[in-house]
Design a protein that fits this description.
single chain; 111 residues; alpha+beta; NE0471 N-terminal domain-like; 3-stranded antiparallel sheet; 5 helices; globular; binds zinc ion
Length: 111
């Protein structure tokens, strides 16, 4: 299925991204999760090598500085001017259910 982004916006004081899909379904993605899953070649290679280290090095309060989107992609700029791009299909596959979000919260914020 091809996923089309109707709207993307930043919520919760920049800590959460909301996507409204063309079919009316909404998905939420925590900013820190997006930062950790940046798909650019730099971050991707780093995280494959030292994933744990990367998470420890991340600021859990990281926020999204700038968010733009088109039908197929979102573009995020971080406070350190790093840019991330996420494909709509990639995001849709990783859409957080309540259960998945609770698990993520536990892993990230309650070590
Ligand atoms: Zn990156």
């Amino acid at each position: 299925m091809r996923c089309i982004i109707q709207r993307a916006e930043v919520l919760d004081g920049a800590h959460l991204m909301q996507i409204l899909w063309h079919d009316g379904i909404e998905s939420f993605y925590p900013a820190i999760w997006l930062r950790d899953n940046c798909q650019c070649s730099n971050c991707y290679l780093d995280s494959a090598k030292a994933r744990k280290l990367l998470i420890e090095g991340l600021d859990v309060n990281i926020g999204i500085k700038e968010l733009t989107f088109d039908r197929k992609k979102v573009y995020i700029t971080w406070p350190d001017e790093h840019c991330s791009e996420f494909e709509a299909d990639w995001l849709k596959k990783r859409c957080f259910s309540q259960q998945a979000r609770a698990k993520l919260q536990r892993e990230l914020f309650l070590p």
